[in-house]
């Protein structure tokens, strides 16, 4: 951790009310070709549990996974807030899809299934359909990229489509990590947000001057601070938990 980042972590740890909002894959868990074989970094998870136990402190995990999928790999209960499908699914309630929304998802799913040469696959989520090529990319990277390119070329009639790590995701509704975080963070005097992927940039962009954004990895980012990987992010969270504990408990 750089001295500048350490100072910023100490600063947000001393705020009156703190929101710690974290992406999952690539941020507190290593990426892997099997989405359900990964687990949270043990040090990161321990720090999260410490933060959850402190007063005036909330931990939220904000992910592109659907909630059921997140719960399969992340053993966190209340008072943690779990937010799936880029903000569309929350424990506070979720939007209803129209008949047109459902018809769109059915159409996109059929088109993606035509493209998904095994072991590429199509994931069905409540508000999205996602084509995954990570396993294919391990042995046939050119074919995997060709499938993603064909997926990106599909007609979405203006509905959202986002590329990520070996995935292209098609959504029936316009919800982003940024739109969810913008509405939720107003309850707190400062927010720390950390993420690794392109989809996390919508959240970085809604952070204010008193907040702290941390990019995990090398992708371009609006974040002012960066760590090299999941191990380094776990150490940031450990430091944050210790500093927050000193501030709120003395």
From TrEMBL:
InterPro entries: HAD-like_sf, HAD_sf, Trehalose_PPase. One of its GO terms (biological process) is trehalose biosynthetic process. SUPFAM superfamilies: HAD-like (SSF56784). This is Trehalose-phosphatase. It comes from Corynebacterium qintianiae.
């Amino acid at each position: 951790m750089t001295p500048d980042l350490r100072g910023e972590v100490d600063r947000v740890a001393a705020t009156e009310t703190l929101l710690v909002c974290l992406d999952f894959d690539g941020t507190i868990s290593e990426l892997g070709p099997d989405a359900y074989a990964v687990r949270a970094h043990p040090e990161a998870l321990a720090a999260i549990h410490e933060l959850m136990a402190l007063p005036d402190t909330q931990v939220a995990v904000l992910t592109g996974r659907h909630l059921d999928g997140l719960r399969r790999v992340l053993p966190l209960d209340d008072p943690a807030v779990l937010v799936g499908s880029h903000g569309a699914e929350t424990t506070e309630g979720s939007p209803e899809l129209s008949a047109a929304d459902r018809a769109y998802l059915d159409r996109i799913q059929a088109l993606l299934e035509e493209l998904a040469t095994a072991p590429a696959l199509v994931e069905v989520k409540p508000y999205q359909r996602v084509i995954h090529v990570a396993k294919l990319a391990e042995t046939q990277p050119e074919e995997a990229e060709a499938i993603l390119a064909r997926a990106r070329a599909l007609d979405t009639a203006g509905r959202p489509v986002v590329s990520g790590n070996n995935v292209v995701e098609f959504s029936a509704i316009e919800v982003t990590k940024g739109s969810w975080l913008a509405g939720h963070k107003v309850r707190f005097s400062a927010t720390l947000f950390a993420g690794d992927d392109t989809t996390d940039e919508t959240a970085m962009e809604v952070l204010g001057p008193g907040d702290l954004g941390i990019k995990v990895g090398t992708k371009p980012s609006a974040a002012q601070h960066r760590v090299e990987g999941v191990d380094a992010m776990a150490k940031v969270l450990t430091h944050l938990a210790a500093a927050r504990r000193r501030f709120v408990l003395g």
